[in-house]
Each structure stands twice: as structure tokens, then as C-alpha cells.
Structure prediction request, 164 residues.
Amino acid sequence: MSKVAIYPGTFDPITFGHIDVIKKSLKLFDKIVVAVSDGENKRYLFNSLERIEIVKKALFYDLKLNKKKITVISFTSLTTDLCKKYKSNIILRGLRAVSDFEYEFQLAGMNRKLNNSIETIFLMSDVENQIISSKFVKEIIKLRGDVKKFTTKSTIKSLKEKYE
Prediction:
């Protein structure tokens, strides 16, 4: 039986921090479902279809990761419902700094209360990518800064097109 993990997030846009988590999780699981959130409680720069395309281009075109091991989807449901759908009991979350931990700890607890067979696994990106956030990447690109240390070429192209 293959081990599937769900990696939910907004990915608005995907960064090298997200990519570190995906690469590390590929060593631990047979399949990763990168679940692009399409919740209404956030204001996104890119709509969910654009974010899915950006994630796919970053992972499969820029980085040449294995398409058979990664599925990229959009979702509006509870993450625990997504776990049922993909027959997974693992939710992946990335941690950058201590400031992330409190929110992530609460979220993991709530998911566990919703379905006690689900485990949340926290992975840290490499040290050089721990400071990266999608918010900062968008701000830097908007102010015409260089973000090539923070995300992939195709993602940068999409960001530049959005701000031109």
C-alpha cells in the first residue's frame, strides 16, 4: 500500500521554502498531494487555477520533479476531508520559524480532533530558505527587486506578468 501525504497551502506563489518541504517529503512518502487552498477568507494575488499552473511549472518544468509522485490540486474543503478522499492519514506542514509554531500547533490539534487517525508532520526547509515567505516575495517583486534566490524562473515570470 502506498503512503500518501497531503501538503496543503495557499502557494501564492510557491517558494523555495515550499519546494524544500516537497523534496524532503518525497524521500518519506510514495506520493505527495500538493493541495492549493481556494478558501474565500484570503485575498490572493493569483486565482487557484493560476496557482496550480505556477506550482506545476515550478515543480515539473523548472525542477523536473517526478510527475508520478506529485499531484497538484485545488481544494475548498477541510483538509481532513481531503485526507479521506486521497486515502491519506498524513498532513504535511512546513515550519520556518518559532513564530509559525503556535498557529501550526493549533491547526494540527484541530485536525486531530476532526479525525484522530490523522497525523501532522512538520518539516523545516533548509536554513537558507527559512526566511522566505510568499508575502515577502510578492512585496519584493512589486518593488522591482530580485527574487531569484526565493523562487523558480517560471514563478518569477508569472509574478512579473502580474505586476506589469
About this structure: Residues 4-163 form a domain with the Rossmann fold fold (CATH 3.40.50.620). The helical segments are 16-26, 48-62, 79-85, 98-114, 134-142, 153-163. The longest helix spans residues 98-114. The first strand starts at residue 4 and ends at 9.
